[in-house]
Design a protein that fits this description.
Length: 416
């Protein structure tokens, strides 16, 4: 059974901002609030400049995907890696499950030759020559590519997302658009109700909070940062973790996070440090800046390591209260382990034992299970949810223990 609904092929030079936006939009389109993702999308976050052929990881991802989404641009047309991905796909699955999104350049079809007009077409790799029997449909997002901040509800992005979602799920376009609108409204009502519950819980905590004015100011700052995007049309909240399926769980999660915020407000965080390990920070540039700014507001030092050896040396040379890392499959050590695995092993050897959080837009389920059993506190995406986990991690410190459910799961896996 395919592991991914779609594989996104793109030029990192041309679409390093558009590709993650499209991935997030597809994963959140028509998504009930309790689900992690509506679709599972593979998008390679690495640069293949030093490689000579497609990696085994990419080949497995291609073979385990149902659809191929090509972000077409002149840079993609020139990229030998995009060409290799297209060739591998056509050789194994053909052209029917291949979808095109035009981000830059031109695509022109010639009825006379029943093929693309390769004189005027600048955005497609020539590997697609003589592939289609009739003119394929493609989505055009060129008008929004240069926007600094593309809203998830942007009409152009929404239309492209809906069309791709319709093709991938095999459902009529009108049906999926209607479902997205309906779920968007229902999720909004749930979040508004949850916000009211959170407000009442907050009032109770503030009433019971016997602390100095400085502590109250720190608590107010942390809570303000937690609620940073909760009221925007993006329907995101620091208190929402997608696997929470009802308001009762949402409320408990909110109270747990507020409790952690209250606890860290009572401590002096000026000596606290957070280390973010990411060998391709350009893929998370906005998220890293957002988290760095929030941490600085509560007095926590933030450090970024782009190289695994450098990160491990930092961990050994000075104490950290939390480590955030990407998965980085196959990019650590000669044995090709994931970066997250190297980081977790290094943390276990420390006396301070800071919690580890994995921040990633995608992950293989088997990898997620393995990392939980190795002691990872959480795997999440989105800066708001990530900051809520950071607050809980700063509160838990080395005392963090996996939930009983995860402990039982890992025990069963060990026996098996």
């Amino acid at each position: 059974m395919p592991m991914y609904d779609a594989f996104i092929s793109y030029s990192h030079a041309a679409d390093n901002r558009m590709a993650p936006r499209l991935q997030q939009s597809l994963q959140r389109f028509a998504k009930p609030i309790w689900r992690l993702r509506a679709l599972t999308i593979f998008r390679d976050e690495t640069s293949l400049a030093a490689a000579h052929a497609l990696t085994d990881t990419l080949k497995r991802a291609l073979d385990n995907s149902r659809y191929f989404v090509l972000l077409a641009s002149p840079a993609a047309a020139r990229s030998k890696w995009v060409a290799q991905e297209v060739q591998h796909w056509l050789a194994t699955k053909g052209s029917i499950p291949l979808l095109i999104v035009l981000t830059e350049g031109e695509i022109v079809w010639s009825d006379a030759t029943s093929d693309f007009d390769w004189v005027r077409t600048t955005a497609l790799p020539t590997a697609l020559a003589s592939t289609f029997d009739s003119e394929p449909k493609w989505e055009d997002v060129r008008s929004i590519k240069q926007l600094e901040d593309i809203s998830p509800r942007n009409p152009v992005l929404q239309h492209a997302t809906a069309s791709l979602f319709s093709a991938i799920t095999g459902r009529p376009l009108d049906d999926v658009i209607g479902e997205d609108v309906r779920l968007h409204r229902r999720n909004t009502r749930i979040l508004r109700f949850g916000a009211a519950v959170i407000f009442l819980a907050l009032c109770g905590f503030i009433y019971q909070l016997h602390a100095t004015r400085a502590e109250e100011r720190r608590f107010a700052t942390v809570f303000d940062l937690l609620a940073y995007h909760a009221d925007t049309d993006r329907i995101r909240s620091s208190f929402v973790v997608p696997d929470r399926s009802n308001v009762e769980d949402l409320t408990r999660l909110a109270i747990d996070t507020i409790t952690a915020a209250r606890n860290i407000a009572r401590r002096d965080l000026r000596n606290a440090r957070v280390l973010w390990v990411d060998d391709h920070p350009e893929n998370n540039e906005l998220e890293i800046k957002d988290i760095r700014d929030r941490l600085h507001r509560i007095g926590v030092e933030f450090e970024l390591s782009k190289e695994v050896p450098e990160a491990l040396e930092r961990l050994r040379s000075r104490p950290f209260n939390l480590v955030i890392t990407n998965y980085g499959n196959g990019r650590c050590g000669r044995d090709g382990r994931a970066i997250a695995e190297c980081v977790v092993e290094a943390v276990k050897a420390l006396s301070s034992r800071p919690p580890v959080i994995v921040y990633s837009s995608q992950v293989e389920p088997a990898m997620a299970d393995r990392m939980k059993c190795k002691g990872v506190m959480a795997e999440t995406e989105g800066p708001d949810v990530l900051f809520a986990w950071i607050v809980r991690a700063l509160d838990a410190g080395p005392n963090f223990r996996p939930s009983p459910e995860i402990q039982r799961f890992c025990a069963d896996e060990k026996k098996g």
